[in-house]
Every structure is written in structure tokens, then in C-alpha cells.
Description:
Layout: E1 3-8, H1 16-24, E2 29-32, E3 41-45, E4 48-52, E5 65-68, E6 73-74, H2 76-88, E7 97-99, E8 103-104, H3 107-120, H4 132-141, H5 153-174, H6 182-197, E9 201-202, H7 204-213, E10 218-221, H8 245-250, E11 261-267, E12 270-272, H9 285-294, E13 306-308, E14 310-311, H10 312-322, E15 326-330, E16 340-349, E17 352-354, H11 361-366, E18 368-375, H12 392-405, E19 409-413, E20 421-423
Helix pairs in contact: 3-4
Amino acid sequence: MPATVIVGTQWGDEGKGKFTDLFAGSVDSVVRYQGGHNAGHTIVTDGESFALQLVPSGILYPGVTPIIGNGVVVDPRVLLEEIDMLEARGIDTSRLLVSGSAHLIMPYHHEIDRLTERYLGKNQLGTTRRGIGPAYSDKASRIGLRVQDLLDEKIFTQKLEVALREKNLILAKIYNRLPVEPEKVIENYLGNYAPRLAPRIADTVSLVQRRYREGRQILLEGAQATFLDLDHGTYPYVTSSNPTAGGACTGSGLGPRQIDAVIGVAKAYLTRVGAGPFPTELNDAAGDLLVERGHEFGTNTGRRRRTGWFDLPMLRHAAGVNSLTELAITKADVLDAFEEIRVCVGYEVGDDYTEDLPYHQSDLHKARPVYKSFPGWRREIGGIRAKEDLPSELRAFLAFLEESGGVRVSRIGVGPDRDQFIEL
Length: 424
């Protein structure tokens, strides 16, 4: 499988980083294809925890080339801080490359993101306020600055001046804020960031294509997940890019027929950060227990995640949108303490029943989940490494997800450490 995509099938935080890290040891390159530092992933190895935001998971393996692809938006300050953190902990980052075509997050993106959310009031989207959306907006408006612009002072300065004509008017006239001073931006980006990033900036599309032709294995890693996708998610409570498998092509430079496998990742339950519909959400003791046992707080923001039961219509929808070839289930051990485990098999919307995900946002907001219940296994599974040793109740739960979801369950995570998984 020369090119494999790993994609989240829910609202993010499914544990993609763990499985990307698991596969990364046997590939040539790991390519991050979209998003920014608004979504982190945590990898635990040998008792050490690494919280990564922009750097691809393959950084922990000598010999693997981690690539930040053209579909990512990059805050150079955050990237350099992450590199420094890894180096300080003994991780060699010299192999890390950044696409020259990736877009830069600028200081005014942070400010506009923060102010927009504040002015939306009760209608705010729950963004991380890290400038991701405004950076992608400038990309679509064709006034964005790219990583390659750091290598040309004249071009960088010209593009910055064009962008600031609009941004400073917005900040002053709409939000009553002081304008951004171009001199300070130039000093930081060209004086501080550019010299350190220059050796890492590359034509990553040509590199990835060359390695594909040579038969080397490539892993494509996204941030966020299917239902935060700009086109296929629960709009407008979505991210500003395409985490679905299709986004792996536009964000890396590989073509659709070059993708050999798409591995979906799903928690054994559901979580969501920020606003938006969540039919199976639990606002009771069971939800609190999921938060407690699953340590359900954002890697970057520290925000408590909303929790709920597994949603089968969501899985089936994600399987189709991403053309999943297999599914990895994570955090099954979080359910060890539950006497009863529930799975949403469909919804009641008004007087109608459907097993499909409602496409209209008003119907999704009103959807009442219909559940199938399973007995819990009521014992710790973190030490199990063979599928034969899994509790029969858990095996029945997984078999139902596989049969009803229409995608093979190939792996299950039973704890946070790198080795706490089972091949099925």
C-alpha cells in the first residue's frame, strides 16, 4: 500500500495520532495535508507524552521524512516552538520539511479570528481563535502569503502591503482596533522566522510524487475529522478545510488513483468540542464518566469535550464519503466501567424514523437518537494484546459495528500507550 490516508470519522479527537504513529514506523514519509495548529494530537511512547500540533507524527521515527503539505496553514512561531520542544527532548527534527506552497498564518489572522468570535456572541462557532479560518479565507480570496514568500523579501513585503490595506481597514473601521504595523511583521517573519525555516522549505509535491514512483510507502495524516469538514461536516460548526480523504489529494499533491487505502479512526463513543448538533450527547453521570475516564480535554485548548454514545449513521456516512477500506476503534478501555453500552442506530425526526444522517441542519438539531444496548464487560482490558482474550461482550460490540457500519474493524485501541492496541 504505497499511499495510505488516515482520517477521523467523527468530530475529531478520535486518536488518529496514535495510529498514525503506529503505521509511521514502516513508511518512508508522513504527510500532514490540511489544517493548522488548531488541532493537536498526543502520542504516548515509553511513558513519554508528546503533544504535537503541526509536526507530523512520523517525527518520532528516525528515517521517516515528516512533511507539512501544501494544504496546511502554518503559523511559523508555533512551528518553531514545536521544533524547539522536540529538540529539547532529544528528538531529531532535521528531516522535517515544509511545503513552500503552504499558506502562512499572519498576526492579523489571529486578531480577526478573535474579534469575529466575540462579535458573534451567542452565535459564535467555537473556533480556537488561532487564525486558521481567516488564513484559509485569504487563501481563497488570493491575497494570502505563502511559506515560499519568506524566501523573497520583495515579494513578501509587497504581498503584506496589499493584505494590510484591507485588514487594517477592517480592524479600524469595524472593530475599532489599532492597525497592524508592517515593520513589526516584517521583522518577525523575515528577520526571525525565515532564516530558521529556509532550510526546511521544499517543493513537497514533486518530492512526494517521486517517492511514490519509487514505490516508497507514504502516509497521509489529516487534522480534525469527517464531520468537521468544510463541505461534509455539520456546517457552520466546522473547520475551514477538508479533513476527509479527498482533502488528502489536494493537500499533498497525490492523485486520487494513487491512494491505496483509507483507514478510518473512531472512538468507541463520541466527543465534540465547541458548538454544533450532537444527537447522542450525554449531559448526565454517564457523560461525566466518559470525560473522567477518557481524559476528554482538548490537547491544545484544554476545553472539556462534550461526550455521547457511538453514532452508527455517522459511521456509515463517513465510510462512504471517505471510501474507507478499514476502521480502527480507539479508547475501548474507557468503556470498561459501564454496565450498559449504547449505540445509536437511527433517529426519530418528527414522526419519521431514519437510519441515514439527516442532511438538513434543522432536522439534525431536532433528531432524537434510537439506541441498541449492549452489556458492558466490566473489567480492565488495557493489558490485553490478543483478540482471543477480549471479553465476549466487547467482541459482540465490535462485530455489530463492523456489520452494521459496513466497514471492517481491523484494530482496537485498549489504552493510550503506543503498544496498547490489538490487531483483529
